[in-house]
């Protein structure tokens, strides 16, 4: 069985902590090269990984016959790297957000379609086992008809400066965090989305918003989605209410009721012991990042373009985020 | 033969319609009901057991009626729906040219089985016995009396309480469960009996019973098949009575346990029948074990186990 040669673009923490280890541990892929613009960072990572580093994705693509390119750079660089990789016939795993705008995302999806390569956008949440369970219950209509979904996703303000420069990031917290939730919602209810209301706030005087809220209908289901960059380790809650039950989940705990009968999981697992007055869940070794990268690697190795979130999903996600900025009249959009 | 099925979106209705996809079945649904779980392409007609006009309209072109609809858990609706609704449906069927009427009852409503008079559900089913079998009808009448049904498509998770405590514990010993007895049948036996009554024009009353089972047999089978490798450890009733209950009572008195020990002395009965009435059905039966394991498989497939 041949191994696919992977080139990783960008050598930040996403690349070194997740992409490189995951492609290394997958039986069908191995990392053969990486690209990093920063000289000091490139030298350090080259030493750690013992694979050659290049100053640009172009140079890496020119020097190696790659099968897979994974993109871990700021959003403004995604389209160029993605199109070059597709042009070279590579399968592409691209971190979210896929692109600065839906228009840009559309160009990427069309190029990938034409080339017939396997693509996936780096949405994380659906790879948590609780989310997998919730999606399973929803696709089997266990809650009856869905009446309403509420999602709150709050995370610490990012450290890197590019997040606050809309030319590099494509926006603020809406562009950064909405994609994870929208991917899950599209998976559950289809990609037919209609934004009915949106608002943003600038809490710290940055060029981009640090709170965002959107109301939309997805496949006819009313959804309220909010996200903030605030001082927190990160809290994400999803509440789904149906005519016959409800579910509330985050990555750790999934609780709900179906016709009044309680269901409860932690990290997708049932308890080891549940005696009513006390519940003990098994220790979890859940690693959603590795799960998503391995899932992409499986599809790339099989040449299966029907990944969990191909570039076309990135287009649908970007359209909602664009609609949020359109409604809220984001000042920086005039410059683009 | 066009068959109108009431209760089409319920546990037995869904299993019946999935077994009848090559037949002309019409699912009778309430206007508010979700039809997402029905098999693709099944014809539906909106109607309500409380509305005689809607029932008359639903009967158009119907040759047979399978009446599964009933309030099973909502006590307030039992008399109105299970008794009154059945009367209205029988009237509507008599007005139309219906040839066969198949009614789903419950084991406790069978004349040879003692009725639990504390159960409003059983009373509501007994109340239509005379309507069905004490009067003349222009159609054949068959009634089915199943015991405790297990099987796939239990969307209301009505049997989840028997499975989850086992899947969610590595060792199951009292006081985690009380002493219960069961008589389990596969939902396919019920579906097969309905189809049998339609095809063979079988009339009259039909019990659908399995063997009477102990707690240990049922829980042990679930434990062998459910995720989690649970071991069921049998504890004699005497231990529960003289050790577990007093211990729980004590823990309750000092504020550790939220409940006293009385609950552990309750003996549950899920459909057991007199020995000479066991393992009866108008069709060849599936095993009670398969009824349990296929329920578990289905729970796993939809994400709740």
Automatic annotation (TrEMBL), chain A:
Keywords: Oxidoreductase. It comes from the Archaea. One of its GO terms (molecular function) is nucleotide binding. Residues 131-248 form the GFO/IDH/MocA-like oxidoreductase domain. Residues 5-123 form the Gfo/Idh/MocA-like oxidoreductase N-terminal domain. This is Gfo/Idh/MocA family oxidoreductase. It comes from Haloarcula rubra.
Automatic annotation (TrEMBL), chain B:
Residues 3-205 form the NAD-dependent epimerase/dehydratase domain. It holds the Pfam family Epimerase. InterPro entries: Epimerase_deHydtase, NAD(P)-bd_dom_sf, NAD(P)-dependent_oxidoreduct. One of its GO terms (cellular component) is cytoplasm. GO terms for molecular function: aldehyde dehydrogenase (NAD+) activity. Signal peptide: none annotated. This is NAD-dependent epimerase/dehydratase family protein.
């Amino acid at each position: 069985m041949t191994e696919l040669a992977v080139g990783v673009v960008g050598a930040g923490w996403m690349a070194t902590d997740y992409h490189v280890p995951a492609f290394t541990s997958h039986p069908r892929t191995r990392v053969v090269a990486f690209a990093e613009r920063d000289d000091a960072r490139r030298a350090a990572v080259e030493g750690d990984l013992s694979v050659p580093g290049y100053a640009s994705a172009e140079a890496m693509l020119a020097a190696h016959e790659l099968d897979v390119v994974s993109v871990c750079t700021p959003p403004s660089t995604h389209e160029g790297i993605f199109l070059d990789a597709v042009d070279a016939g590579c399968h592409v795993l691209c971190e979210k957000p896929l692109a600065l705008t839906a228009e840009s995302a559309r160009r990427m999806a069309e190029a990938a379609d034409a080339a017939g390569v396997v693509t996936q956008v780096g949405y994380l949440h659906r790879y948590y086992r609780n989310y997998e369970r919730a999606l399973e219950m929803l696709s089997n209509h266990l809650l009856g008809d869905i009446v309403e979904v509420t999602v709150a996703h709050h995370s610490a303000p990012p450290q890197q400066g590019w997040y606050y420069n809309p030319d590099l990031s494509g926006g603020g917290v809406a562009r950064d965090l909405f994609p994870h939730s929208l991917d899950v919602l599209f998976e559950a209810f289809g990609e037919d989305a209609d934004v009915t209301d949106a608002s943003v706030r600038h809490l710290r005087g940055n060029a981009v918003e640090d709170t965002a809220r959107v109301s939309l209908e997805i496949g006819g289901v009313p959804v309220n989605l909010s996200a903030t960059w605030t001082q927190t380790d990160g809290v994400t809650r999803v509440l789904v209410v149906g005519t016959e039950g409800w579910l509330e989940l985050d990555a750790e705990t999934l609780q709900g009721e179906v016709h009044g009968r309680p269901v409860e999981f932690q990290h997708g697992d049932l308890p080891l012991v549940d005696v009513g007055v006390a519940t003990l869940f098994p220790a979890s070794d859940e690693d959603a990042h590795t799960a998503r990268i391995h899932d992409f690697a499986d599809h790339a190795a099989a040449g299966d373009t029907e990944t969990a979130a191909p570039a076309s999903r990135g287009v649908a996600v970007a359209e909602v985020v664009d609609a949020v900025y359109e409604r809220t009249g984001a000042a920086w959009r005039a410059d683009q | 033969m066009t068959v109108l099925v009431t209760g089409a979106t319920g546990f037995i209705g869904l299993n019946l319609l999935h077994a009848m996809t090559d037949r002309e079945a019409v699912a009778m649904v309430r206007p508010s009901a979700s039809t997402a779980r029905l098999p693709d392409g099944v014809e539906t007609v909106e109607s309500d057991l409380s509305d005689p006009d809607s029932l008359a309209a639903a009967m158009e072109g119907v040759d047979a009626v399978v009446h599964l609809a009933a309030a099973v858990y909502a006590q307030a609706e039992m008399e109105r729906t299970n008794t009154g609704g059945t009367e209205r449906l029988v009237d509507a069927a008599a007005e139309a040219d219906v040839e066969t009427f198949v009614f789903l009852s419950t084991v406790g409503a069978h004349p040879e089985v003692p009725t639990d008079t504390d159960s409003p559900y059983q009373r509501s089913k007994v109340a239509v016995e005379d309507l069905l079998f004490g009067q003349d009808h222009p159609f054949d009448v068959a009634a089915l009396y199943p015991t405790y049904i297990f099987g796939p498509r239990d969307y209301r998770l009505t049997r989840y309480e028997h499975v989850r405590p086992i899947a969610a514990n590595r060792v199951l010993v009292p006081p985690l469960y009380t002493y219960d007895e069961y008589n389990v049948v596969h939902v396919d036996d019920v579906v097969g009996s309905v189809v049998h009554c339609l095809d063979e024009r079988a009339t009259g009353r039909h019990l659908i019973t399995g063997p009477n089972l102990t707690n240990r047999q049922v829980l042990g089978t679930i434990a062998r098949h459910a995720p989690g490798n649970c071991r069921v450890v049998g504890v004699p009733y005497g231990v529960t009575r003289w050790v577990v209950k007093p211990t729980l009572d004590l823990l309750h008195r000092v504020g550790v346990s939220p409940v006293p020990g009385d609950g552990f002395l309750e003996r549950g009965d899920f459909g057991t029948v007199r020995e000479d009435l066991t393992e009866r059905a108008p069709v060849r039966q599936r095993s009670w074990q398969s009824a349990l394991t296929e329920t578990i498989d289905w729970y796993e497939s939809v994400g709740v186990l």
